[in-house]
Amino acid sequence: MRKKCLLIFTLITIFFTHIASAQNGSLIGKLIDEKGVAIGYANIALLKATDTTFVTGVLSSKEGSFVLKTPAAGSYILRFSAIGFSETKTAAFDVAADFNKDFGTVILKQETKTLQEVSVTALRPTITQLADRMVVNVEGTAMAASSNAFTALSKSPGVFIDQDGNIQLNGRAGVTVMLNGKLTYLSARDLRTMLEGMSAENIKNIEIITNPSAKYDAEGSSGILNINLKKYDRSGMNGSLYSGYTYNGKQHGYTAGGNINYNNGAWNTFLNLDFAHRVGGREATFTRVFYGTNQTTYFDQIATGNFMAEGPPTIRLGVDYNLNSNHSIGVMGYFNTNTLEADFLTNTFIGNTPKQPFQYIDADNYTHNTYTNGTANLHYQGKLDTFGTTLSSDLDFVKITNRGYSNYYNYFTDLNNNQNTTDFLYTNLPNGFDIYSGKIDFVHPITKSHKMEAGVKASHVVSDNDSRFYFNNNGLVLDPLRTNHFNYKENIYAAYVNYNGTLSKRFTLQAGLRAEQTKSTGISYTTGRVDERDYLDFFPSLFLQQKVNDNYGINYSYSRRLSRPNYGNLNPFKAYRDPYTWYEGNPYLRPQYTNVFSLAQTFKKVYSLTLSYQRTKDVMAEIPILDVDNSTTIYTTGNVNDGHSASLSGVGPLKISKKWDSQNTILLAYNKFSMQSNNGQLENDQLFYMFQSNHTIQLPKDIRMELNLLYRGPAASGLYHMAAMHRVDIAFKKSFLNKKIDLSINANDLFKGFRFYWTTDINGNINEFDQYFRFRSIGATIRYNFSKGKKINVKQRNSSVDEVNRT
User: Fold this and answer.
1) In whole angstroms, what is the distance from residue 160 CA to residue 671 CA?
2) Which residues does the UniProt record annotate as the domain Outer membrane protein beta-barrel (predicted)?
C-alpha cells in the first residue's frame, strides 16, 4: 500500500512539474572561460533587479549552455557563478509576455583560491562539499520551518542522535558541537535543551567537519558539527517574526519569536528571541534475562514518559563596532532558562519463568528541573597589514545551573499472596558549571599561495554537583550510600601552528601540530576520594590535495584527536530510575584517543567518494553492569578497550527532472569494539550501511516541496547492537506578498520507523530495550520578513570554546 501511494504521488508530482514548465519564452546563452573552454555545471540564478531576490535557477550543461524559462513580467538580472571563477552579473533587463533573449557567450574570469571548493548544486543548494568539510544549507528550506535546531541537526547526513542526546557521526561516537564556531559547553541533555528552544529558521548552515585541522580544539574524536546562525547582510533595519505549532499525536507544542538586526555605519546590532513550549515523550519496553547460579530471572517492563518544558524567551544579543576599516570589536550575550516537568511511569513484572511473574512493581517517577545558561563573549578582529595578516581574540564566560528534584513512588505487589508494600524516595540534584576561556589566533600570509597560522588558548572549568538522596516513607531521611557531593576543576592550555600552501599546480598542502596540557582534580567530599590528572598530548594533522585533472581530484588526510570524559560521567553519584535500574558515574574513566586516515575523491566537482579508517583507543561507551543474582542492571560509562572503524561514503546529486533535484549520501562502514571484563573478552562488530536522500521539488503555484528519506541498517555502538531504522519527512513552503510572508507545513517520520531497538548479550544475559520517542509529528509555521537597506559585508566570528560539550 505504501509503495502504491508513493508511486501515485511521484506520478502526480511529475505531471504538475511538466505542466508548470510548458510555458512560452526562454532565456538562453553559453558560459566559457577566458581560454574559450566551456564551463559546465555552473550556477545561473535569475534575480529580481529591484532587490536581488532569488526567483529561479539552473545549472549549465556539460557544454556550458543554459536555458531558463521566461519569468513573469518585470525587471531582472542573471547571476553566473562557478567554482574557481569570479561571479558575473548581467545588466538589468525587462521582461514582457512571450519574451525571449539570447545572452550569447558569457565569459567568466578565473579566481585563485588556496583550497578548492566542490559544490553540489540543485534548485537551491542543499549540500556543499568543501576540501575539509561538508556544508548543509538550512536557511530558507521548508524543512527548517516548524522545526528546531536540534531536529535540523539530527537530519544532517551521517548524523545520528541517540535517546540520551549523544551524537554519532558516520556511526562513530565522540562528536563536538559548535555554535558559530564556538563550542557550546553543554552536556548531551543540556545541548538538546538549548537546541530544541532555537528555531531552525535562524540557522544558516551546518558544517560537518570529519577531519579537523590543528587550528581546532583536539576535542571531538569523530569530528565537529558547527551550527552557523544567520547574519543579516543589509544596512538599516532587517528581521523577521514567526509563530509555529506542532502535534506529535499526544501533545501540543508551540513556538514563537523573532530576530532583528540594525546596521548603521560602524555599528551592527542584533537581537534574537525564541520562545518554545516544548513537549515530547516515549513509549518503551525493556526486557532482561539473568542466568544466575541457581535460577533464571525474567524482567519485563513497560514504560511511558512525558515531558513539557518552557520558560521566558531565549535571548541572544550582540553588538559589533568597526573601529576603522581594519579593526573591529564585539560583544555577545546569550541567556536561556526553562523549567522542565517530566514523568517516567513503568510497570515491571519479575519471575523465574517466562510470563509467570511472582512480583509486580508500579514505579512512578516525577521530575522538576530549572535549567539556566548564561554566556558572554568579547571578540576582537584586526588586519595588521595589506598582505592579509590578521589577529583575532576571544574571551568567554559561561555559567550553567540545574536546580531540580525528583520523587520516586514505588508500589510492590507479591503476586503469590497479593501483599502490597511501598518505597518512596526523593532526590535533590543541584549542579552547575563555571567556565572561563580565552584564545588568540594569528594568520600571516608568507606569499600569495602560502600562509602560516598560530594560536594559543587557555580554559578553566569549575563544576559543583551536590546530589542528595532521601528515603521518603515517613519524612525525609538522608541515604548516605546514594548521596554524593562532587567537585571538579580542570585547566587546559593549548597552542597550535598550521601551514597552508600550494606546492605546485597540482598539489596543495595543509599541515599542523597542536599541543594540549590538561590538569584536573576531582574531589568527592562524601567519600574523601581525590583524583588528580596531569597529561600533555600532541595532535598532528595533515591534508594533501591533488588536482589530477579539471574533473578529478584527490584529498589525502590524517589527524589525531581525543574525547575527554564528560564532567558528569566522572561523578560517582548514582542516578536512580527504578528499584532494579540506575546509572552510576565512573571516576576512573579515561579519555579516548583516535587516529583518522582518509582518502577523498571528487568527480566533476559535484560527486565525492571518501574512504576512511579510524582507530580509537579506550573508547568511552555506555556499559551495562549486570548483578545477575539480584536481577539488577547498573549503567555506567566505561572504557571499551579498542575500537576500529573502516568506512566508504559517497555524496552526489541526481537531477530527476528540470524542477526536481536530489542530494544523496550513502555510507558503508565496519565497526568493531572489544573489551576485557570480569566476564571475559567481550566483542561487538557490525557491517553498517546508511542511505539518505534529500529531494527538492518546485511545484506549481511557486510551492516548494522537500522530501527527506533515511535508512540506517543494523549498527554496533560500544557493547550494544542497534537494529535497523528509517524515517520519511516531507515539507511544503509557499511565499506571499513578494516573499514577505512564508507559510510552511511539515510532517516527520511518516511511517513511525525511527525506533530505537538496542540489545546487549553478555555471557548469555540479555538486556534489550525498544523505545519510540514520538518523532512522528505535524507542524506549521508562519513567518513575516522585513528588510530595509542595502547589502553589506558582514564579518564572521570564528571563536572556539571546547569545554562546554563535556558539562
Assistant:
1) 15
2) 383-784
> pLDDT digit string (tens) for 257-292?
988 988 887 888 999 898 989 999 999 999 999 998
Provide the H-helix boundaries in 228-337. Answer: none
| Long-range contact set of residues 380-384: C-beta below 8 Å, sequence gap at least 24 | 380/327, 380/328, 380/329, 380/330, 381/327, 381/328, 381/329, 381/795, 381/797, 382/326, 382/327, 382/328, 383/326, 383/327, 384/326
Contact 83, 65 (CB under 8 A): no
8 A C-beta contact, residue 163 and residue 773:
yes
How big is the chain by its Cα radius of gyration, in Å?
28
Helix (H, G, I), strand (E, B) or coil at 586: coil
Q: Do 108 and 128 contact (CB within 8 A), yes or no?
A: no
pLDDT at 17: 40
- What is the CA 57 to chain-centroid distance, rounded? 29
The position carrying cell 520519511 is: 728
Pseudo-torsion of CA 475, 478, 483, 489, nearest 10°? 100
Model confidence at 417: pLDDT above 90: yes
Cell 513578494, residue? Answer: 738
Show the cell assigned to 82.
Answer: 562557478
Q: How many CB atoms lie within 10 A of CB 1?
A: 5
Is pLDDT above 80 for 681?
no
What's the DSSP call for residue 504?
S
Domains of the chain: 1-111 (2.60.40.10), 236-806 (2.40.170.20)
Largest CA distance in the chain: 93
Q: Above 70 in pLDDT, residue 232?
A: no
DSSP symbol at 245: E
Measuring CA to CA, which residue among 672, 751, 653 is closest to residue 710? Answer: 751
Do 704 and 732 meet the contact criterion of CB atoms below 8 Å apart? yes
pLDDT(418) > 80: yes
User: Of the candidates 350, 202, 221, which has an alpha carbon nearest to the alpha carbon of residue 288?
Assistant: 350
CA torsion sign for 187, 219, 139, 142 is negative
Cβ atoms within 10 Å of 112's Cβ, excluding its own: 8
Helix, strand, or coil here: 696? strand
Measured between alpha carbons, how far is 104 from 78 in angstroms, rounded to an integer? 13
Number of residues that this document lists for the chain: 807
How many Cα atoms sit within 13 Å of 644 on the Cβ side?
Answer: 9
Q: Cα(478)–Cα(566) distance, rounded to whole angstroms?
A: 27
**139-160 as b/e: b if 16+ CB within 10 A:** ebbbbbbbbbbbbbbbbbbbbb
| 519: amino acid identity, one letter | K
Residue 205 Cα to chain centre, angstroms: 10
Host H or E run for residue 149? helix 149-154
Burial class (CB in 10 A: 0-12, 13-18, 19+), 474: exposed
User: In degrees, to the nearest 5, what angle opens at C-alpha 450 toward C-alphas 448 and 561?
Assistant: 145
Check: CB of residue 492 under 8 Å from CB of residue 526.
no
Q: C-alpha grid cell for residue 121?
A: 548544486
pLDDT tens for 334-345 read: 999 999 999 999
Give the lowest-confidence range in 12-26, 226-240, 580-594. Answer: 12-26
